[in-house]
Amino acid sequence: MATSGIENSGKGEGRIRNATLIAGPTASGKSALALKLAERDGGVIVNADSMQVYGVLDVLTARPGAAELARARHFLYGHVSPATAYSTGAWLRDVAVLADSGIFDAQRPIFVGGTGLYFRALAEGISEMPDIPQEVRDRWRWRLNEEGAPRLHRLLMRVDPEVAMRLKASDGQRIVRALEVLQASGRSILKWQADRGHPMIDLATARFLVIEPDRKALIERIDARFDKMIEAGALEEVKAIGAMRLAPELPAMKAIGVRELAAAMAGEMGFDEAIERAKIATRQYAKRQSTWFRNQFGPEWRRIGGEALVRPPD
To answer: What is the CATH number of domain 20-127+196-309?
Structure first.
């Protein structure tokens, strides 16, 4: 059943007025639509994709190129080091900084991306989380690398079983997050999550758009786009991020194409196989995104097809 939580938030209206939210699966044309609306309405574009926040991976995450950046102002693209485990809360804080700067006062903000939790945070708010001292963060990430996720999951089961039972033993990032929150605050992450936040956007003046592309056309776009990524320097990006020697559990290292192309460069598989695997992974990801949007976005979201890319909605 589709749910949104917006009508039941009971928290009043947010401070960002006249926002446009554009969601959709990868390669569906979201960025192109956002650019058309920005030029037509005098807006600025704000990234709402959890992979496009990372530096280094310009091509592999399909970030806007120089031509697009020249046509409209873009924010929160490539501003985070791949060595950082960026979160929804960190993204929302960055949006708040933009709002405080006054950027949205004169130009309509257009949030575009494929990360559903970012849009939910904008429209419903997010639970406040405690500040984690760097030494605590480093300690748990070191233990994750040294001991592995299953062992830390067993530890979490002893100190916070309610959280542990909700997590897979292989989900190292969430296990570490629960442990560091508990150590830093003395309070379970579930209790922090139960404290709802406030909407960031003014719901009455916002418009919500979600692209629902034709499946066959989307697959063709995904495959063609990945071929262009190879031509545009995706292999060089994988070499660059590999040289950083980052922990494989970090979100940036899970960007589609990184693992596959790295394996090909290491001689573990052929490049044709790596490219095909990356395309398949992208198609699967797009399907998961579409399912999430269909089940989680409520009736306030206007469902639009490919025609919107030619004639943007009012």
So the answer is: 3.40.50.300
